[in-house]
Amino acid sequence: MRVVHVITRLIIGGAQENTVITVLGLLKKPGVEVKLITGPTKGPEGSLEEKVLGYPGLLIKVPELVRPMHPLKDLVCFLKLLRLFRDMRPDIVHTHSGKAGFLGRMAAHFARVPVIVHTIHGPSFGQFQGLLPNVIYLTAERIAGRVTTFFVSVADAMSRHYLAHGIGTPEKYLTVRSGFAIQPYLEAKNDPQFRAKLGLSKTDFVVGKIARLFKLKGHDDLITVATQIVRVNPQVRFLLVGDGYLKERLQGRIRDLGLERHFVFAGLVPPDEIPKYVGIMDCIVHLSKREGLPKALAQALAAGKPVIAYDCDGAGEVCIPNKTGFLIQPDDLEGVANAILTLANDAALRLRLGSEGRKLIVEWFDSDRMVDTLYELYLRLMSQKA
Q1: Rounded average pLDDT over 34-48
Q2: Are residues 168 and 202 in the same domain?
Q3: Which of 56, 195, 225, 323 suits 164 as a labelling partner, its CA being 20 to 30 A distant?
Q4: Is the pLDDT of residue 20 over 80?
């Protein structure tokens, strides 16, 4: 069985980590040949390419596969993918992300690839963007949806969202949680020495946020509520893990508000080191307004940390009120502030929520389980085609 995965870029992010784990896991399956096609990885978000470079012939770079819309490059990319698929003759093409999802599926269709699978990691259309982009992306998803054999969603919310807009039919959808290496998070410790290295004391209440410094990720909302929070509890500190184009602007806002002492920018952190940072956090906040199912929430819960999140897309499937954390309506800054202060003042509540969350994640988010489920799906789809 020849399988080709296609993703726009291999930056450090949830969709990309999901794809890399899947591809490397499939290499261990009997009778499976795997290739991974991606575009150039640029920018401050970091790269996961080193994870796959040690496997000769696995990675194929298409320079024209870029994230922004670019008619000429998009056409060249489509033609290159079409030629690659005709030459490689894959049994399955599995696409990820918006641009690669559209171009990859259309090229696979015209190359007569028997099975075309697409994973929905997050919505490509919705209230988070304007009318014209929504029309373009929704139209593209509907066109590509007609040639898609099967959809994999990282959250039930993604399936509902796409079905509600006329993309596919219910029997063509399966939810497969984005698995990750859980054990390092189960073993994560609140290391006083590592806290001290970052300028955090033993008595600080550390609110963590793991996300690219990018629009719609909610950093501005967190900075806004921080003023109110530290006025009530000066021991609250905010640890931001991630990098991105908004870093200088966010740091400027923090300076203007006189909050420098309360914010720590950890910068870009390799995925393997994330558990060490989660270990020193007392809770994790995720205020994204566009997400499939935030892996940061699952990672936090695996480490036994309670979570606070906006009720957006699939967040509510792991951030469960009164069970694993606080689910807040988007833009309810007062609710965010109250949730953080409540957790800061109640160690027993933090322990209970974190403990319940850990049980949930161990059951749902094991990386081997994700790979096994996808492998079984491939076999079933190939059997149906045969």
Answers
A1: 88
A2: no
A3: 323
A4: yes
Same domain, 152 and 189: no
The burial class, CB within 10 Å (0-12 / 13-18 / 19+), for 265 is: middle
- Would you say 264 and 286 are in contact if contact means Cβ atoms under 8 Å apart? no
Q: Are residues 159 and 194 in the same domain?
A: no
Residue 139 domain boundaries: 2-179+366-385
**CA–CA distance from 192 to each of 198, 304, 340 (Å)?**
10, 17, 21
For 141, half-sphere exposure in the C-beta direction (CA atoms, 13 angstrom radius) is 28
218, 207 contact by CB (below 8 A): no
Same domain, 115 and 196: no
Clarify whether residues 150 and 268 are in a common domain: no
Helix/strand/coil percentages in the chain, nearest 5 = 45, 15, 35
Does the structure show a pLDDT above 90 at 385? no
The answer to whether residues 342 and 318 touch, using CB atoms and an 8 Å cutoff, is: no
Q: Tell me, yes or no, whether 50 and 28 share the same domain.
A: yes
pLDDT attached to residue 290: 80
User: Which helix H or strand E contains 306, and what residues bound it?
Assistant: none
- 243-251 average pLDDT score: 94
Contact between 212 and 321 (Cβ < 8 Å): no
The CATH number given to whatever domain includes residue 100 is: 3.40.50.2000
11 pLDDT above the threshold of 80: yes
